[in-house]
Amino acid sequence: MTPVVHRIGRRRAAQAVLAASAVLALLLWWLLPLGGRPEPRGTMEFTTGVPTGVYSRYGKLLEEQLAHDLPEVDVRLHASEGSVQNIRRLVSGEANFTIATADSVAAYRDEKRPGAGTLRACARLYDDYMQLVVPAGSDIGSAADLRGRRVAVGQPGSGVSLITGRLLEAAGIDAAKDITPVPVGIDRMPGMLRSGEIDAFFWSGGLPTGAVQELAARTDVRLVPLGDLVDELHALGGTARHYRAAVMPADAYPRVQRGKSVKTVAVANLLVTTDRTGPRLTEGITRTVIDSRDRIGREVHAAQLVDLRTAIFTDPLPLHDGASRYYGSVKP
Length: 332
Prior knowledge:
Largest sheet: 10 strands, mixed
Order of helices and strands: HEHEHEHEEHEHEHEHEHEHHH
Mean pLDDT: 90
Strand content: 15-25%
Number of helices: 12
Distance between the termini: 63 Å
Number of strands: 10
Structural class: alpha/beta
Shape: globular
Oligomer: single chain
Low-confidence stretches: 22-35
Radius of gyration: 25 Å
């Protein structure tokens, strides 16, 4: 075979390789998302909260959005008693994402509980507002008036029980001696108040909370102001540094407030994971959480407060590497 024939054969082989490479590149361009990164995949075991609370509703709407944005991610929702149980599930490996209040996370870290060092944040979401609910005709006008009363204080393992204990302490009330504490959650609180089994209940949640709305539609109730306890709370130190003065707007519960705002105490909610979760999955989920604010916010009012400018302020937790990568990609 002549040298010319050899050269023609080599040229054709090279052309075939280039053509195959072009086809492969085109195929990858179609299969990979913009930016050239593979689609996030894996399982999101998401522990939320009680069925009638905002955590649960938010989780269901986020699941729907993730099915659209990250079709290769299998989202599984799990009900819980609230923030404290959520953190325990996270560090034990029963879940890899959750929502928890900043004070609950701080308490877990301050106590140096198992796995505390693995906790990482994806975003600051929205604030929980402390709500002290009593019958409209009750003579309870402040937390100090709860002495001698039957008070629902939240389930053990809930963020509600944690902040309720701090509020009672700030009000000078010994929960073990001065009141009859009833350890139930928001799923039972409204019914017990309506039937007279309790005189008041504490709830910490996004605005509005469906269970409180439904109670107000059936029974005349009132919200007791708690804003006067902020200074006393901060004086307690520790996790109390995460509580701030807040105002429930007049339209949070129109049937209850009748055009009046209510001073209270608020605490931030964080989307939390651990350092065991992969950065690509975390980045994708963080992106959806921020991008879906308006869509989810149409049904969960609290979600409207998720904001790219404040989402990175996740004290007491550092950001997960994947979340940091997301915020870096959208930084102006």
